[in-house]
Design goal:
It is built from three helices and four strands, in the order E-H-E-E-H-H-E. The protein is α+β, with helices and mostly antiparallel strands. The longest helix is centred in the last third of the chain and has 15 residues.
Length: 121
């Protein structure tokens, strides 16, 4: 015989956790870098038209000879902080770990430059 629920059974507890991340809306709706997969629904030329239409001269498109990605779209201001020869291999390596050739992956990049100088007294 199964135990019957009585009318005095306690109500089950229900909880919800809500996490909200608020950030500034950006035009175009991309971040610092886009990795464009070789078979992604949007190709490098479509991305170029999109970024040129809404924020001209702010992004550079770098064509790649890579097994997964066809191109990288990078914010030019990042390349003033770090040359693309240093930045892109790191981003492509990390993107390659999570993406496939059907995807367009956006990346937010934070670069901190540390400087130490010595002056004569």
């Amino acid at each position: 015989m199964l135990p019957q629920e009585t009318s005095r059974s306690p109500e089950p507890q229900r909880k919800a956790d809500i996490t909200i991340k608020l950030s500034e809306f950006e035009i175009p709706p991309m971040q610092d870098i886009l990795l464009v997969g070789k078979r992604a629904p949007i190709g490098p030329e479509a991305v170029r038209r999109m970024v040129d239409a809404v924020s001209p001269e702010q992004y550079e498109i770098v064509r790649l000879n890579h097994e997964v990605f066809e191109a990288v779209v990078v914010k030019k201001s990042l390349l003033k902080l770090l040359p693309k020869e240093k930045l892109l291999p790191v981003v492509i390596d990390e993107g390659n770990r999570i993406a496939d050739d059907n995807m367009v992956v956006k990346a937010q990049i934070n670069i901190t430059i540390q400087i130490s100088r010595t002056v004569d007294l």
